Amino acid sequence: MVTESVVRTAVARALASGALQPIATQTEVIEGFVVRAASTIAAKAAAPQRADPLGDYEPDLFVGDVGSAHYALLNKYPVVSNHLLIVTRRLAAQEELLDAGDFRALAALMAELDWLAFYNAGRDAGASQARKHLQLAPAAMPLEPLITRGALPFRHGYAPLAGLDDMYRVYGELIAQSPAAPYNLLATRRWMLVVPRRQERYETISVNALGFAGSLFVRNSTELEAVRRAGPVNVLRAVTLE
C-alpha cells in the first residue's frame, strides 16, 4: 500500500542516492496564481535521455506497486514535493483514454492520499513522457473556488464526485461532452475537471494540467515577465478552446 509515510521514505532514499533531483524554484503570486520560476534546471537539461524513462526507470524512484497493472514512481525532477507518477505496466500511449483499471489504481492511491490527481493527455496537453501515466501531488489549488462554481473563463467540463468509485463514470460523461481534442484532467476526492486544449504553449511557456489548478511553471525570468504581462488567466485562455 502506498501511503504518505511510504512516499516520504522513498523521497528520502532517492534524495540520498541522487536519483531524485528537485528543481529549485522561486515562487511569486500573480493575480492569485502560484507561479514558480526555475532557479536551477541545468541538471535536467544536461541529463542523458532514456528512451522510456517510466518503463526503464531508475530503481530508487520506485515507490510501490498499485495493483497488478500499475506502479508508482517519484517524478525525477519535481517542482512540487512528493510528486508521484502512476504508470501503466503495459506499453500504452499517453494519448489513450483512461480506462477502468487506471481509475481503480488512482482510487487506491487517493484513498490514502488526499491530493490532486491529474492527466496530461498528449504533448499538446503538456505531457513530457510518451508512456501512459497519471500524476498525483499535494499541489496548491488556488483556482478551486472557480472550478467548483463552474466559473472558469474557457471551455471545460466539471462534475462533483460522490466518491472515488464514481470517477470512471464521471470521466466518461465529461469526455463524451468534450470536443475531440487533447485535454487535461484534474480530480480530487470531491470533483473532476476536464479541459480541452488547443495547444501546449503560450509563447515559450508549456502549460500542463496544474495550470488549471492555478499553478504555473516558467523556466526563466523572460517567461515570468511574459506571465506578468499577459496575466495568468490569459495564458490559460491562449491554450484552451473558447
Describe the fold and architecture.
26% of the residues lie in helices and 25% in strands. The chain contains seven helices and 13 strands. A hairpin with a 3-residue loop joins strand 9 and strand 10. The radius of gyration is 17 Å and the shape is globular. The mean pLDDT is 95.
Radius of gyration: 17 Å
Please indicate the percent range of residues in DSSP E strands (runs of 2 or more): 15-25%
E-strand count: 13
Average pLDDT reading: 95
Distance between the termini: 42 Å
Strand arrangement in the largest pleated sheet:
3-4-5-7-6-9-10-8
Provide tags for this entry:
242 residues, alpha+beta, 8-stranded antiparallel beta sheet, 3-stranded mixed beta sheet
Task: Break the fold down into its secondary structure elements and pairings.
Layout: H1 4-17, E1 25-30, E2 33-38, H2 42-46, E3 62-66, E4 70-74, E5 84-88, H3 100-110, E6 116-120, E7 133-137, H4 144-148, E8 157-160, H5 167-177, E9 183-187, E10 191-196, E11 201-202, E12 205-206, E13 215-218, H6 221-230, H7 232-239
Parallel strand pairs: 2-13
Antiparallel strand pairs: 1-2, 3-4, 4-5, 5-7, 6-7, 6-9, 8-10, 9-10, 11-12
Provide a short characterization of the protein structure:
With 242 residues, this protein is of the alpha+beta class. It is built from seven helices and 13 strands. The chain starts with a helix and ends with a helix.
